[in-house]
Amino acid sequence: MVEKRKPIPVEEAVKKVMEFYIEQKSEKVPLEQSYNRFLAEDLVASHDVPAFDRSPYDGFALRSVDTESASSESPITFEVVGEIGAGYVFRGEVKPFQTVRIMTGAPIPAGCDAVVMLELTQEVADESKKIMQIKRSFKQGDNISYQGEDTKKGTVLVEKGTKINPGVVALLATFGYHEVNVAVKPVIGVIATGSELLSVDQPLEPGKIRNSNAYMIMAQIDRAGGEARYFGKFNDDFEDCYKATKDALAQVDCLITTGGVSVGDYDYMPAIFEKLGANVLFNKVAMRPGSVTTIAKVGDKLIYGLSGNPSACYVGFELFTRPILKTALFNKQPHLRKTKATLGVDFPKPNPFMRLVRGKVEYGESELFASPSGLDKSGVVSSLGGADALIVLPGGTRGYEKGMKVDVLLLEDLGGSEWPWSNIVPSYR
Ligand SMILES: Nc1nc2c(c(=O)[nH]1)N[C@H]1C(S)=C(S)[C@@H](COP(=O)(O)OP(=O)(O)OC[C@H]3O[C@@H](n4cnc5c(N)ncnc54)[C@H](O)[C@@H]3O)O[C@H]1N2
Ligand code: MOO
Ligand SMILES: [Mg+2]
């Protein structure tokens, strides 16, 4: 008789996993390599931006008081006493009815308190000096970008744990971070097991399939910000798999195996975990797909026995490995972002387990719609390509109807959830 496994709820399983953590470490990388990494410290403005009062336009800097009586009937003329482009400072003194030709980005000359756009001025012909004329008045502060109006020194602009996007790169450069303190990528090992597995470059043979899970998991690790290390695929042979698993564990922060966790004659992973002296957190989760997901602690490391079925394997990673990885990257919202969507199809058949349907979300005018991205079976691979969400259908005695509001977990969203697992309730009509 096979041992009877006791399924635990998804929420409980995630909680058990989250008691474990990979040590958070940081390293310095050149700014050019910081894109897509995760900040290991808050990004703080090290000076005001702009750092000096400057002109947002090409035009003329002047004293607003001199413009008070200007009108089309009685224009006022100014003597142009200098010219500054961005990057230069006007060192002279601007006296009454004098002006300085100024370009966008240049600092406002001392004594001036307004800038007139070039288009609102006229040149006046004069042999001996340069003269400019205006036909309306300007107020103090007109067309001046004041020091600190963009941001003030000391402001926390981006929090530790944030993924560095091109905008964050701009801020890092602005504040002189030629080297950036980023989270060290956790190293996640990957092992595929199964005597049926061919390499990707091999032609199909009867009874065999190509190993897709290993590459899928490596891409998932990469998407979550980790570093994947592949140890290869192994036949269903106890000793080979045991040795590979033991060796790999010593070289990584976490290890993922795929295949061989169920109750088949060649499903050796449970026995291998035992021989490794693993403390099994759970070996059955009340979810579909991925019910056989087995997670254990060996010493201070986690080992994931993910299902061999591609969809189950995929979901197992997103629910149980991603948050561990994200936490190591200083992320305070390590779980997939949860939001509400309107179900696009019926799910008439009740299921006692929570279903996580690979889905596609569409953006309606003011709501999201979610529909399956393909056949909803654990062994299916075709639904994975188009999946950008997991539709969460809690287990129960009734099915779900098109039009109901359901929770979805977004797979490609950069923002996350602190804890998406509370208040996931069935919305029966
Ligand atoms: N009697 C029972 N049979 C099964 C149960 C059960 O409770 N009782 N659970 C089923 C469920 S649910 C799942 S999920 C699978 C889990 O199987 P394993 O994790 O043991 O995985 P394998 O048996 O090795 O393979 C399953 C399936 O996936 C294919 N596979 C495996 N590795 C890969 C890979 N790297 N790339 C692509 N596809 C892979 C493999 O060929 C099989 O078709 O067990 C059910 N059975
Ligand atoms: O682990 Mo299985 O995926 O529930 O189909
Ligand atoms: Mg099996």
Automatic annotation (TrEMBL):
<keyword id="KW-0479">Metal-binding</keyword>
<dbReference type="InterPro" id="IPR036135">
    <property type="entry name" value="MoeA_linker/N_sf"/>
</dbReference>
<dbReference type="GO" id="GO:0046872">
    <property type="term" value="F:metal ion binding"/>
</dbReference>
<dbReference type="GO" id="GO:0061599">
    <property type="term" value="F:molybdopterin molybdotransferase activity"/>
</dbReference>
<protein>
    <recommendedName>
        <fullName>Molybdopterin molybdenumtransferase</fullName>
        <ecNumber>2.10.1.1</ecNumber>
    </recommendedName>
</protein>
<comment type="function">
    <text>Catalyzes the insertion of molybdate into adenylated molybdopterin with the concomitant release of AMP.</text>
</comment>
<dbReference type="GO" id="GO:0005829">
    <property type="term" value="C:cytosol"/>
</dbReference>
<dbReference type="GO" id="GO:0006777">
    <property type="term" value="P:Mo-molybdopterin cofactor biosynthetic process"/>
</dbReference>
<dbReference type="InterPro" id="IPR005110">
    <property type="entry name" value="MoeA_linker/N"/>
</dbReference>
<keyword id="KW-0501">Molybdenum cofactor biosynthesis</keyword>
<keyword id="KW-0808">Transferase</keyword>
<dbReference type="InterPro" id="IPR036425">
    <property type="entry name" value="MoaB/Mog-like_dom_sf"/>
</dbReference>
<comment type="pathway">
    <text>Cofactor biosynthesis; molybdopterin biosynthesis.</text>
</comment>
<keyword id="KW-0460">Magnesium</keyword>
<dbReference type="InterPro" id="IPR001453">
    <property type="entry name" value="MoaB/Mog_dom"/>
</dbReference>
<dbReference type="InterPro" id="IPR036688">
    <property type="entry name" value="MoeA_C_domain_IV_sf"/>
</dbReference>
<dbReference type="Pfam" id="PF00994">
    <property type="entry name" value="MoCF_biosynth"/>
</dbReference>
<dbReference type="InterPro" id="IPR038987">
    <property type="entry name" value="MoeA-like"/>
</dbReference>
<keyword id="KW-0500">Molybdenum</keyword>
<dbReference type="Pfam" id="PF03454">
    <property type="entry name" value="MoeA_C"/>
</dbReference>
<feature type="domain" description="MoaB/Mog">
    <location>
        <begin position="189"/>
        <end position="327"/>
    </location>
</feature>
<dbReference type="Pfam" id="PF03453">
    <property type="entry name" value="MoeA_N"/>
</dbReference>
<dbReference type="InterPro" id="IPR005111">
    <property type="entry name" value="MoeA_C_domain_IV"/>
</dbReference>
<comment type="similarity">
    <text>Belongs to the MoeA family.</text>
</comment>
